[in-house]
Amino acid sequence: MDPFALLRGGLRFDKEKDDKVRQIFEADSEDDDSTSQTLVVKTKPKGKKGREASKRRHDDRDDDDDDDEDEDDGAEDVHQDSSDEEDDDDELEVDLDEDEDEDDDDDEEEDGEEEDDSVEGRLAKAKRIGPKKVRKQHQIQVKGDDVPPPVVAFQQLSDYDVPKVVLSNLCKMHEKPTPIQMQAIPAMLKKRDVVGIAPTGSGKTCAFSFPLLANLGKHDDSGIRAVVVAPTPELAFQIKSELELLSRGSKLSIQLLTKANVGNVAKARQRSHDILVSTPRRLVYCLSKGLIDLAKVSWVVIDEADTLFENGYETQLDEILHACANREHVSLFSATMGVNLVINFDFPPSANEYIHRVGRTGRAGRTGTAITFFTTRDAPILRSIASVIRASGCDVPDWIFQLPNLPKKQRSRTVTRATISSSAAAMMADKAKRRAWAEKQRAGKGKKAKRGKKKSGGRGGGGGSKKGKKQGAVDLAE
Ligand SMILES: Nc1ncnc2c1ncn2[C@@H]1O[C@H](COP(=O)(O)OP(=O)(O)OP(=O)(O)O)[C@@H](O)[C@H]1O
């Protein structure tokens, strides 16, 4: 069994045991030396200038669609704010080796020079400073193994053996890549699953559309090979348009699934289409009626993943992923993953750690949402985390409780409480108790205290007594 599952407070998972379901979000535990397929790429506009440019790009787009204006303006604020907040988010915390002050130093270093923004100038500078500094300067954060270098010019993509016509379209459409494109495009061309997080209007559509087309290469008649899912018909239409612009002159065929054309798409048996773009609802409807066959799909992109996860589309996403039984690559793009949402891409190592993480979503009596991806490898700890979820009042399927439990020694403390917040309070009280105990140990002059200290191996000494271990296990303090 290799279930791909989403836990949203309660729990969702592939209804059937699908051994083809890929582990798209591998736990990157330290003892796992396999290379993680998933790469998290997160960017934010650089300073005020960048934010203004991003907003300008976005406003340009809004000119075409007045209906979206209010909604998008709101989203701009939310995404920018949350992007800043995410800096202290463990779940998506990424590999910034140095802090932003150092970025500023880099900028100052360059201030003396006349910035050469030609393709040659950018390439020369990238060569001089190396990929790490390029990422820093463009506020690109990455998490994952074996990350391909960011590209500073689209021309560099010819190294990836991409179809010439698609690359030429890209170069005609845009002068240079945006930060999310700089990193996500080469990553997807390397056939990595990408979780791309970048602000609204930062060019995410192109960041996945180009590599999707490039990876598909030529049109073939075997059936739909890629699916892009977006939350609204308008967004699905925009994605289809971008894909069409980028694929002009190639024979690749892009199909938007709409109410009106469902019949036609079904009639053509999808042989003539390479990419299908749809909202989850419409696609699931077609699947349920047997109108669409996604068995040949190897690429799945979920756009605006945050919106989809937050608005109750998990069941549909489950069904779509399940229908794409032979898929090889799944990527998620989103303007933000933050706010009241915690996504555990790596499975929490204990129930305590799970509570610690999801506690971020529901502080001060507020409700929140937690989504946890798990694979078979996580089964040993799944049961105790499922107990926590059930205790907080959510539905958990019974099969999870039939999984073997961890031996008592290895199990973290069982958490029994009505809500996550009350549990957090109990654990903090427990922590205070332990702190007092440790204080007593330190202060104690008597034989008993000395003996206790010796037994626990001292504070923070990894392999100490049970109490010593507990000391470092949980930190729920804000
Ligand atoms: N490299 C680029 N240079 C300049 N403009 C670009 C570039 N890539 C995309 N754009 C333009 O920026 C605008 C916003 O792009 P896009 O819609 O892909 O952003 P997004 O990140 O998907 O936004 P949202 O989160 O709202 O969906 C579009 O008009 C697009 O054509």
UniProtKB/TrEMBL annotation:
SMART domains in alphabetical order: DEXDc (SM00487)
Stretches with biased composition (Basic residues): 124-138, 443-457
InterPro entries associated with the record: DDX52/Rok1_DEADc, DEAD/DEAH_box_helicase_dom, Helicase_ATP-bd, Helicase_C-like, P-loop_NTPase
EC number(s) reported in the record: 3.6.4.13
Catalytic reaction annotation: ATP + H2O = ADP + phosphate + H(+)
One Pfam family per UniProt: DEAD
Region spans: Disordered: 24-140, 426-478
Segments of skewed composition (Acidic residues): 61-75, 83-118
Gene3D superfamilies in alphabetical order: P-loop containing nucleotide triphosphate hydrolases
Transmembrane feature ranges: none
PANTHER family named among the record's database cross-references: RNA HELICASE
Function: RNA helicase.
Protein name: ATP-dependent RNA helicase
Native organism: Salpingoeca rosetta (strain ATCC 50818 / BSB-021)
